[in-house]
Each structure stands twice: as C-alpha cells, then as structure tokens.
Amino acid sequence: MVWFKKKEVTSEERKAVDALWSKCNVCNEIIYKKELERNLNVCPKCSYHFPISAQKRLAIVVDEGSFSEVDRGLTPVDPISFRDIKRYSERLEEAQKKTGLNDAFIAGKGEIHGCPAIIGVFDFGFLGGSLGSVVGEKIARMVERAMGERVGVIIFTSSGGARMQEGIFSLMQMAKTSAALSLLRREKLPYISVLTDPTTGGVTASFGMLGDIIMAEPRALICFAGPRVIKETIKTDLPPGFQRAEHLLQHGMIDLIVERRKLKETLGRLLDLFSH
Amino acid sequence: MRHYLDFEGPLRELEREYEELQRFAPRDDPKVLARVEKLQRRIAKVREEIYSQLTPWQKTQLSRHIDRPHTLDYIDLVFEDFIELHGDRGFMDDPAMVGGLARLDGEVVVVVGHQKGRDMREMGYRNFGMSHPEGYRKALRIMELGARFKKPIITMIDTPGAYPGVGAEERGQAEAIARNLREMASFPVPIVVVVIGEGGSGGALAIGVGDRMLMMENAIYSVISPEGCAAIVWRDGTKGPLAAEALKLTASDILKLGVIDEIIPEPLGGAHCDYQGTMTKFKEAVSRHLGELRGVPEEKLLLERYNRFRQMGAFMEE
Ligand SMILES: [Zn+2]
Q1: Using the beta-carbon criterion (under 8 Å), do B164 and A207 form an inter-chain contact?
Q2: Which of 191-250 (B) contact A at CB < 8 A?
Q3: What fold is seen in the domain B60-310?
Q4: Chain B residue nearest residue A231, CA to CA
Q5: Which of B54, B138, B158, B287 could make a disulfide contact with B114, Cβ separation 3.0–4.6 Å?
Q6: Are the C-beta atoms of residues A251 and A82 closer than 8 Å to each other?
Q7: pLDDT tens figures, B258-292
C-alpha cells in the first residue's frame, strides 16, 4: 500500500479535517460537524449523544435569558502540589485557556418551561469533567441555595470521576456533596440527576446516583469502574451494551432515558409535577 | 514465618542469623553470648534506620502487609461479645465486608469493616477485601441498626477499592456507595472511622463518613491506588512508588490536610509486629473519641459532621 503512505498527513491537514468532521464514539460514522451541531450533537445514524459543553447544554435546556450563573469566582488551587509528567497547576491553566472556564462545572439559577430550579452542568472538556474541590463546593452551595429558595436541584453530569490531582480532597467531595444532598432530602425538595456520556467513578458513586429522579441520555456510558479496568480484572470480553444507559435502565438503576431534543420538555414537566 | 518486604532485606539476613544462633548455638558459650548481644544491637539499629524514614511507597506496602491485623483481628482482640451479622437481604452475603454487634468496654456498639484474607484461600473467599454492592448494602443495614437502636458505630477501612466486575456494576456498585455516603451523613449516633490498612478510593469512603476519622500510622488513604494513578499518568503501572509520593496518601499527609483527627501509632516495623501493642493503642484512641462524642445532642452531632465534610477541599474565591 505504498500509495497510501506516499503523502504523510501533516498535523495541519489533520487539524483541518478534524475541524470539519467528527467520528461517532459508538458506530464510528464520520459526520459533518455542521450537520452534527444542527442535530444537537446527536449521531444521525445511531443516536449516540456526543458530550457537549456546559454552555451548550444550558442553551438547550434552560429558558432563554433565565439563567444566572453563581459562584463564578470559585477557582481551583493545587493543594498537594501534584506533579506527574506535568504540574497540576499547568494542566489547570491549559484547561482554563481551552474552555474559558475556571473549572469543570457551571452552577446557577434558571427556569425550565417557567419552573425555577438550581441547575448545575459539568463540562467534560475541562480536565475530563473531573470532580475536584471547586466542583464539590459549587454543588454543596447549590443544595444550600435550593433549600434557601425552596426549589429543586438539577445536575447534568459528564465526568471521568474524581480529580486525582487533588488527592484525598477530591475523594472527600463525594462525601461532601452526598452529605449536602441528605439535607435536601430532609427538606423534601426534589433532586434530578441527568447522566450524560460519560459519567464514571466518584461522580456516579455520589450525587450521580442519588437523584430522586435519575435520567440518562441514550447510549451514555454510566459506570463506577470503567470498562477497561473491568476487562483487565476479569480478563474476558464485556457483554454488548454493558454500562450503557439502556443496560442500566434494564437493570433498574435509572428511571428513564430521554433524548436530548426531549430533555427540556421532560424536565419542565417533572419540575411542574413536583411543584404541585 | 515472618514475611519480609523488599526494603526489609538487610533486616531479614540479620534476623535469620539471630534465630539460628538462638536455636543451635550452645547458650553457655560466652563467645556466642557476645555475638548474640552484638546482633541484637545491630538489629535494633537497622530496624530504627529502616522504619524511622519510611517512604510513601514503603508505607503503602506495609498497609497491605499480609500479616497485618485485619478487621476481624481487631474485633477479636479489642471488642467483646461480637455477633456477626450476614447478608444484604437482597442478593447475597459479601464476605469482603463484615459487621455486627459487639461491646467495647461494656458499651454496646455496631462494628463494620472491610475484611481481607491471610492466605490464598481466604484471600479468594474475601475477594481481597473488595466489596460488591451487597457488601456496602450489608454494612448500611447493620449501621442502620446502630442508628435506630442508638448504638455508636465504629467502622474499619481496609480495601484496595470496590470490586470492578460485571455483576458488581449491574447490581449498582455506584448506587450502593453513593447511598452509604448520604445515609452515613444522617445517622444520629456517633460514628468513629479508622483506616486500619488500605483506604482505597470510593470503596473505602463507602463506610468512611463519620464524626471522627483516625488512621493507623502505616495506613494509606487515597482517591486512587498508586498503581492505578501511575497507569493513567505515566502509562506504566510499575511507577507506583512515584505516584504514592505524588498522591499524599500517608497518614501524616492526610492529617496535615485536615481530613483526619489523629494518627494511631504503630509498633516499630508495623502493626503486624505486635498485635497486642497495636490493639492497646487502637482501643485507647477509639474509646477516647467515643467518650468525647457520648452525650453530644443529636442535632449538634449531625451539624458538626456536616460541617466537617462541608469544609473539606481547597479553592480560591475571587
Ligand atoms: Zn453513531
């Protein structure tokens, strides 16, 4: 296949191709980016729901003009001077530059079909949506704010799990957020958890799975241990569809699977049902 | 026979020689006696050298030492009247988690903890201390008894992590852990948590929400195992020692970060070198903390527990 190798693809050319086309994680279909965006970043072939930025998520779900962000000034620090091949502080700077966000989570107050709620959204583009101190603090404050205003909480997850660069503090955010949700529960205010691709590790094993209502987007990977780790442990192939939203629904772990274009309507109806 | 770790090499040679002398050399020979005394001094010195400056990785190894006291050893040697309770009432009894009712200095308490094995057969049976969802659900069920019948809860953490398997995932590993975190935050009785060995991520935390958090001196507590961390960032699981350094997972690191209240000292060489000595220190610390929590009004207890976790983390606010 000499002809194939004759011309090396330069990184510039690759960038140009990546800028125009996306490959579906599930069915490998190559999709024109503009078409994908028109379709709310849902694969037209297999209806896999691509991860989307927090901003985009809010634009899809929240009533236009109703969202006001809170705790925007919360900024991550490097509490254990973590360094692998790069310093955590450098990784943070890069992620901040890339996403324009301080950390992997946007919290605020907004309305969905006129129903007010405290809403939080992960941004997977920021260090894989990992759960660090800033994310944990924002969620705890969301819950406290919701209790103050007597409204429900909605969290859209998309996360690789705990942010190991913050060491034990990242693990403790699981306890912190779950403790906060225990108060919300006592106050009898609803919490809706919307799991989107991918939701894994410490995020699933805390507020992810604690929703009064747990929703997921189609085909979303939802798990505690990732498929690669499990495969290495048990040394056999995993069942087809394992850890995808449909699989979890079948095993009784989530309430419903909702397509992205129906998400707003479904959330609005639920908030309305809870508020009466 | 004692199991030696790689960094204990120099000690192994000396101790073998010492044992042989003790066993085979004539005791009344002054030359032998002198040699024995010299060896004893040398052993003491080498022990001091090795154990006074353990690296995070060496502590990780000690925390996983096969001879280290496990939950059932503590229950056996520190508590009285233990009755083990089994099963999650849903699917199975998970031997990687144990628990039940017992007495501590006469007072009725609830104890739960991860359980590892000591030989290959028991390790398999206990699944190396890695619980399935049923383990966490059993622990929750037993702790809930404490909450309802007003008995303090003592938990012992010693696990590499929650088991990553197909059944575990399908039956809700994440849900089981999450539920425990939420419920433990609201049990209206004192909860004392002790990391006795390996505190491996979410599977450890699942019985780790309490009013007091203690760690044995050579225990570790980490968001991810050093090997797992190394596999992710260096793509090389053998870089565990580097990751152990980076993760700040030793008891002294965790104390500095304000996540635990106290370190329970271990005998030189680790908890397995002197069970009785270890148990005495463990019992003293746990009883003292329970004593301080006794009589604290429910509302105050829960508020302080909430605040303890609420303030965990580090960030700036602009
Ligand atoms: Zn597709």
Answers
A1: no
A2: 201-202, 205-206, 208-209, 221-224, 228-229, 232-234, 242-243, 246-249
A3: 2-enoyl-CoA Hydratase; Chain A, domain 1 (3.90.226)
A4: B165
A5: B158
A6: no
A7: 999 999 999 999 999 999 999 999 999 999 999 99
